Amino acid sequence: MKVTEILLIIINFSGSLAVFLFAMKLMSEGLQKAAGSRMRAVLGKMTGRPLNGILTGMGVTAAIQSSSATTVMVVSFVNAGLLSLGGAVAVIMGANIGTTVTAWIITLLGLGEGSGYFNLPLIIAAASLVFMFTKRDKMRSVGQTIIGLALLLVGMSLLQSAMPDLEKYPSLLRGIASLSGYGFWSVLLFVLVGALLTCLVQASAATMAITLLMLHNGWIGLDVAVALVMGENIGTTVTANLAAMVAGTAGKRAARAHLVFNVIGVTLTLILFRPILSVVQAVFPDDAPMALSLFHTMFNLMNVSVQSWFIPQIVWIVTRMVPEKKAEEDNDDHRLTYISGGPVDTAELNIQSAKREIMLFSKQVLRMYAMLPELRKVRNEKEMDAVVARIERYEQLTDRMDMELTKYLVAIGGGSISGHGSERISSMLRISDNLESIGDSIFQIALTRKNKYNDAVHFSESQNANLAEMSALVENALLVMDANLVDYDHVDIEAANAAEHEVNACRDRLRTAHLEALKSGQYGYEVGIAYSSLYAQYEKLADFVINVSEAAAGENHHDSEAEKA
Description:
The protein is an all-alpha fold. Helices cover 77% and strands 0% of the residues. Helix 13 (249-271) crosses helix 15 (288-307).
């Protein structure tokens, strides 16, 4: 074989594979945009029963045509505390069954006689025109899915034509045949090859398509193809484990569970390799690709049937594989843990993780606000400095969380996402920005308190009582805000507005009384400046608080009461 011939084969094959992968991405993204919100809701409300988890994973993966998307989403949900580790294992098991749908699509539509370049793909593509020019996002997403399926079949046709005729290259055919001549060791070898190939391509559907084509063209026998498929099931776990690299302990355990499940499944199947092979050959004696697709389904069904009884044991194994990290004495150095890697590839399905991270952001702000009363109880300068320093660390934390959340949300928005998802991301960006501003305001209040202490400025009992009342009203507003971040579709904007109104009314009362006190000389200039600065800062903080609820509700009015005054 000449070098130019080899290069031509590689170029043609690579281009065909690129079309196939793009088609898979297009189809998966279309399905995600059409059903993304529903899929998030299904996983978010899933119960702890293993059967429910298996059926959910199977249904979600079959619907979005991406087991990698499902497993990455599961890692994120476990990391977010939305799924227990046992529930995640069940979903992953179901995802392995759901992913077998892709093999049947390729076998039934991509390898048939009627799947040529000018018939079935173009008929399917023509059907997408019904949906592509509608104004409804979901209908356009359905159209994208259909055109993705058409391109998938085109990619399969191109892959078929790019496959060289091995009869012209007998030495290469003999080389492949020789690798198949070592009995059980050949099976193990091709399991390893399948795993490595899937790791490199990062798409089990693509490696499955290549395997089916090699089998269809007679390059390899059914036993070798079966070994490759088993390896592909191990290789596909790499995506979730890469995503879990930046996840917390729970997320890493969920990703390891995917690996453990498939490794155990392959091990069990290798023990019964010949009997299983005989069964699929008996069902489809004259159709090797159909037999391989049947094996793929049987492999996952049998593994789920057996291993679903041992979910607690799988959880035990992965818990020891990924031990709990020792808790830090001070949890102030928290970083994003509810968001795992790979946000762009599963953009529509990762919004839930960002939402959960924002809920944590809100809790951190509440913890930060709860430190302010400590400043009124300090007995010396050392204690004052310690409390202010801790609040400052939290302020730096809010800066970092806002920066990382913004980066993550922008990455999601830069992917293929529905109109509703885009609006939700815009709301989250505004929420994150205002939560960071709340952190800044809390720190400014702390600095004002510190300056007052250093300057030996003392408030009267009535002034302290007034500021305590203002602080309590702002705390109530923060609690309402925190509750509104649980479900953006049911934001209690009336309660948020009522809390904001109470803060503004208190500010107006204090300001009026303050001006009268200055006129009558009840306290001096320095006391007055510190006092008015504090209640004004509390009111400004409340402005950012109402902005959060408004953003969660999707409202567009941004003016605070201070701006209206």
